[in-house]
Sequence to fold (190 residues):
Amino acid sequence: MSIFDIDAYIDALPSHRLREPTNPPAQYQVSRWPLLKPYAGFSGIERRRGGQLAGWLQAAGCIAKPSRCDICRSRDRVGYHSASYYHVGRYPALCRPCHFAAHRRFYEWDQWKRIIDAAAVTGREWFALASRHRIDIAQHLRNLWGWQAANIERSPISPLPDAIVVMLPDNMLPHPKLSLADDGQPFAGF
Ligand SMILES: [Zn+2]
Fold:
């Protein structure tokens, strides 16, 4: 059995330079949609929180709106994809079909393989390194960082610049494992 190298995969993710906010929204967007199912070990709550922060960073002007798909270079309906919901600003940009194929790759590997084989040059691109089977990226990161890995507004893994942190709203969907820390109490862990 081959062992998937999660750290190499994360290292290969794009790293966006985060600019100072020019137009910071006062609140994170609140969605009425049901939470998504877990992905790569990240819970529905963590995926919602990651989406709130990514959406805020875009609206605030900290990261540019994605224009081209990282894989096929299409400009059609390009959006950010979260490969690790604990890594702020490490968002690949994907067009709708490539995004769909990325999430479906566990069931439809051949379809995904066609897409990446047509696009990979070095084979070290993040998408060429994406796992064929489900892996628990979240647990791997918590083994390294504890539950603070989930504290994306004060991330120990990919820290936000202070100029951004001071502007962040206070209405992010609460994380059940981080509620103690929010009260100013020492984080107890679970
Ligand atoms: Zn694409």
